[in-house]
Design a protein that fits this description.
Length: about 350
C-alpha cells in the first residue's frame, strides 16, 4: 500500500508542468499500483483479469481502497487467486470476522474485475437475484445480479452459501460447471453461457450453526468446489499474534501495549465463540472500532461497553461474560491510568 502511494506521488510530481501527459501518467500509476499489489501478495502468476474486456458501466463494481490483508505465512490471497486461476471457483471456510469478505474484495481489486456480492443469509428472492419483468411487456426484463455476472463476468461472491434458499441453489447448479450455462425459462428460454471470466467464490461460517440454525452446504455445490481454503483468526486463546497487535496499533495509533491487551481480550472471546459459549467474537475491524474510541480518550473499559460488549449480544448474561474477560485482561487499572471501581 505505502509503495503504491509512493509510486502515485512520484508519478504525479513528475508529470507536473506537463499537463498534456497527465492522464497517461495517472493511468500508468493505477496499473503500477496493481502491479505492486500483485508483487506484494506473490500473485503475478495468477492474472485473473488478463484479456478481460471490461464492459462499460461495470468499472464501479471493482473495489477501491481495500486495506492490506495481514496473515502469518498462510498466503491466503495467493491461495484464493491460484484456486480461481485454475478452477474458476473456490470455497472459503471460517468463523465470522476472519477476513473472508475482505479477501474477496482484495482479489477483485488486484485482478481489476467486477465483484457481484450476494449475502445468501438475507433470503433474497429468485426474482431479485436472477431477474424479472418490470411493468408490462416483454421488453422490460431486468437482469438480476447473478444473470449479470453470468453475462459480463467478474467474481460472483456468495456469502453464507449454506444459508442459500433451495430454489436459488437449484437455479445456480447448472452454472457452477465452468462450461455451464443458464437458461432463463421466464424469458423465452434465453440461454446465457457462463462468461469465460466468470469466477465464483462461496464462503461459509462453520461456527454459526449453533446460533443461526445454518444447514450443511447443498451437496451439488460441495461437489463442484475444487479448492477449500480454511480461515482462522490471527489470535485465538493463548495464541496472540504480533501481526494483529501491530495492525490494531497502526490502524488506531494506540500504543502497542494497549493494542496487545485488546488483542488478548479478542483472542479469549474467539476461543469461547468457537466452543459455542458466546454467539459472536470480535474481528480485527471490531477491535479497530474499540480502539478508535480509546484513542479519542475513553478508557478501554468504557469503550469496550460501547463496542465489543454490546456487539456480542443483547443478553445480559453474555455481556457479563465479555465484561469479565475485559476486566481479567485489563487488570484493575486501565492503561490510561484511570482508577476503575470494583463492585
Ligand atoms: N487478516 C486480516 N487482515 C486485515 N484485516 C482483517 C483481517 N481479518 C479481518 N480483517 C478485518 O476485520 C473485519 C471483518 O472481516 P470480514 O472480511 O468482514 O470477515 P468475514 O467475512 O470472514 O466475516 C474487516 O474490517 C476486515 O477488514
Ligand atoms: Mg463476510
Amino acid at each position: 500500500m505505502e509503495s503504491n502511494d509512493t509510486a502515485h506521488r512520484i508519478l504525479t510530481t513528475r508529470s507536473e508542468g506537463h499537463g498534456g501527459r497527465l492522464t497517461v501518467k495517472l493511468s500508468m500509476t493505477a496499473r503500477s499500483g496493481e502491479q505492486t499489489l500483485k508483487e506484494r501478495y506473490n500473485v503475478l502468476k495468477y492474472d485473473l483479469g488478463m484479456g478481460y474486456a471490461m464492459p462499460e458501466g461495470l468499472r464501479s463494481l471493482i473495489p477501491k481502497n481495500v486495506p492490506p490483508y495481514v496473515d502469518q505465512g498462510e498466503n491466503y490471497v495467493e491461495r484464493v487467486m491460484r484456486a480461481l486461476f485454475y478452477f474458476k471457483q473456490c470455497s472459503l471456510i471460517g468463523p465470522s470476522g476472519t477476513g473472508k469478505t475482505h479477501i474477496v474484495y482484495l482479489v477483485a481489486k488486484i485482478a481489476g474485475i467486477p465483484l457481484w456480492e450476494i449475502n445468501c443469509g438475507l433470503q433474497t428472492s429468485v426474482y431479485d437475484l436472477f431477474g424479472r419483468f418490470v411493468g408490462l411487456g416483454k421488453e422490460n426484463w431486468v437482469d438480476g445480479q447473478i444473470v449479470s455476472w453470468c453475462r459480463y463476468g467478474g467474481i460472483l461472491y456468495l456469502d453464507e452459501a449454506n444459508m442459500m434458499k433451495q430454489d436459488v441453489a437449484t437455479k445456480m447448479n447448472p452454472i457452477l460447471d465452468t462450461r455451464g450455462h443458464m437458461v432463463l425459462n421466464e424469458k423465452d428460454n434465453e440461454i446465457i453461457p457462463r462468461h469465460p471470466y466468470g469466477y465464483v467464490i462461496i464462503s461459509m461460517n462453520p461456527y454459526a450453526a449453533e446460533f443461526a440454525g445454518t444447514k450443511p452446504l447443498n451437496a451439488a455445490f460441495r461437489r463442484r468446489m475444487s479448492v477449500w481454503v480454511d480461515f482462522d483468526y490471527l489470535s485465538v486463546g493463548t495464541k496472540v499474534s504480533e501481526n494483529e497487535v501491530k495492525l490494531i496499533a497502526e490502524r488506531t495509533r494506540l500504543p502497542l501495549a494497549i493494542a496487545e491487551k485488546m488483542t488478548r481480550v479478542a483472542a479469549e472471546m474467539r476461543k469461547r465463540y468457537k466452543n459455542g459459549d458466546i454467539p459472536y467474537a470480535p474481528s480485527v475491524g471490531d477491535l479497530v472500532n474499540w480502539g478508535t474510541l480509546v484513542a479519542d480518550g475513553l478508557s478501554p473499559r468504557a469503550a469496550a461497553e460501547e463496542t465489543i460488549i454490546t456487539l456480542t449480544s443483547d443478553d445480559a448474561e453474555v455481556q457479563g461474560t465479555v465484561r469479565r474477560i475485559v476486566s481479567m485482561v485489563l487488570g484493575t487499572e486501565d492503561e490510561v491510568g484511570e482508577k476503575v471501581e470494583t463492585s
